[in-house]
Design a protein that fits this description.
The structure is a homodimer. Chain A is an alpha+beta fold. Chain A is 35% helix and 27% strand. The first copy, chain A, is built from eleven helices and 15 strands. In chain A, the strands form two sheets. In chain A, strands 1, 2, 3, 4, 5, 6, 7 and 9 form an eight-stranded mixed beta sheet that branches. A seven-stranded mixed beta sheet of chain A has the order 8-15-10-14-11-12-13, with helices on both faces. The longest helix of chain A has 24 residues. The two termini of chain A are 38 Å apart. Chains A and B meet through helix 8, helix 9, strand 13 and helix 11 of A and helix 8, helix 9, strand 13 and helix 11 of B.
Amino acid sequence: VTSEATPPLVAGFRFAGVSAGIKKRGGPDVALIIADRVVACAGVFTTNLVVAAPVVQSRAALADASRARAVVVNSGNANACTGEVGVRDAAEMAARTAAALGCAERDIQVCSTGVIGAPLPMDKVRAGLDAALAAARPDGLLAFARAIMTTDTRPKVRFSQITLGGRTITAAGACKGAGMIHPNMATMLGFVVTDANVAEAELVTVWRRICGRTFNAISVDGDTSTNDTALCLASGEVGGAPLRGAELDALEALLERVAGDLARDIVRDAEGATKLVALTVRGAASEADARLAASTVATSPLVKTALHGEDPNWGRLVAAAGRSGARVDPARVAVSIGDVTIFSENRWHGPEAEKAANAIMKTPEFGIALDLGLGTHAHTVFTCDFSADYVRINADYRS
Amino acid sequence: VTSEATPPLVAGFRFAGVSAGIKKRGGPDVALIIADRVVACAGVFTTNLVVAAPVVQSRAALADASRARAVVVNSGNANACTGEVGVRDAAEMAARTAAALGCAERDIQVCSTGVIGAPLPMDKVRAGLDAALAAARPDGLLAFARAIMTTDTRPKVRFSQITLGGRTITAAGACKGAGMIHPNMATMLGFVVTDANVAEAELVTVWRRICGRTFNAISVDGDTSTNDTALCLASGEVGGAPLRGAELDALEALLERVAGDLARDIVRDAEGATKLVALTVRGAASEADARLAASTVATSPLVKTALHGEDPNWGRLVAAAGRSGARVDPARVAVSIGDVTIFSENRWHGPEAEKAANAIMKTPEFGIALDLGLGTHAHTVFTCDFSADYVRINADYRS
């Protein structure tokens, strides 16, 4: 189930990734997911008010109906801050794909990632799209994953299976990196497909919840891209009645496993990062407080540089929670690194605890927990450290 | 009026800075401002919910009455997250100073900065306090400034004078650095004294406004310390009636000049920083939007690494404003670096503009403006770049 293993086929889907010359440095840059027919599709998009043309296009299409026939992606150019031209280009990408597949334009999802502010080279995009339409194959997920990469160091593919009522249900997906992206801004793109049979409305609800715990629960540098998109498509090819009740819960767990693995892969591959940290705030007075405190701590530069230094600096953790806007009473806060409590009841637990915590922080993946002691709400954010490499990569003058 | 010039005396005040052995590496670490009598005093404190004991003590004292006789500061230990012991220690610092000066405990302001979580070495603090009380002199501001430093590379003293109705009014102050402080967390401390005659209530109003445009308008890494404090004391020794109307406005401008110079000194001296950038958001739909957008852009790691790389990366600037929560319509946003507009009306102004902007960014101090095109509100934040040195300094394991 690692990124390296060959993913199983997912009935009802074909994938492609081809080189169209959009990326300056070459490599595959047009990618396609095609469903055999129009299928259920749920999408979660960036909350940035500065939104790229493809996000406007795709969000409107899904607002119309939670369905899609295909997803077309280009890398190398974000089609963001491109004005009216960009809107027309995104629409043309949908229209051209729809014409080839014989479906409505609104049944096509469009994503772009790469440099901001330059118009799409549409001649290349058209040729790439035609090539991708011809190249799509059931075993093409890895080619798809390669073609959506920007500065990711490796393609990210994950999958998982469950058996429900005698039927094996498969979910597989691919994603590309968030944050720390040179030469421009990060874009997080995540795609999961399944052959499960699930009603459109159920898929929308389930996918929104999953994204809140996976793609929207990772933090690399706190910057939100203009292009972030997470899509889930369900073909229903496995047959049977639409899943509900406990079976729907099992599907949610399956999809979350794949989405969570993909999301963590993004943090692992963040440029300059050397640590994957599951940062949990629990004991919060409300769900909103848990999210606010966790995301503030997870994006604090002082916390992230301490992670890089393997420094169990509980003072920075507590102070970041304190400024988050969440209800915090320092006398009730307890801080643990792995299973070592280093601060509680206004008291540092001494050099022994600190030494044990430091040893845990020397490993590449570990957990940190802040218990606020005020309630029952919890939230986990997956974050990484800030390294000097992060600065070096992101400070380089675009050229 | 630079930090290097010798500040003039401010009638009614004496200052001291002495070495008490609180800092592990030695150097002055107990500092004192003494007014000849109880004078008007206004304070602005950290908004962090995790608040150090001295802040609790000082805030309560000023809530009682906007007056003070003295300000006592120790560096080397923040007296934060120290529970009941810390509260007692802060109270003792006030009580001991009050006893020596023959005033009430509530007339003493107490500040601490340094390592979090360790109890104050009170024997050393007591001896240092007694020494500082004996050493206080009218020309001791620079000694005071040296004794409040933690990892600041230089003492920060600023002053200015105006003439009102034939009387010369002097304001002078000192501060210590915000953000990027090793081994623990940043603390920003700022102090301005004046010999002007101003009513307590007026000073409180004026000082709150000034701090919003100076000490609270600087951003180093977005982390807010548990100990941040900015105090202004007015002795009235210059005589005359309490200032009002246009004369009060002139005093506000005088105090703001000193506080602004000090605040910018903090950013200039931020660890690893090589650029001082005045980041202005104008054309915002509301004052709150202007502040939100400016502070989000000013703390974005992607923006700050681009500043370090002298990269006029308007995409990162616009996208950070877009995620800030402020109302933003990308089609109306214009971005300028210095006097060069590089993006407006959804259009990049081309390589010539970018080259000119890059040349401006090669200088150590410059301005960046985002005009949101939605209203008349503006806010300026002084920020700095993120360098690899910042990571190195803050990642070092505490030892």
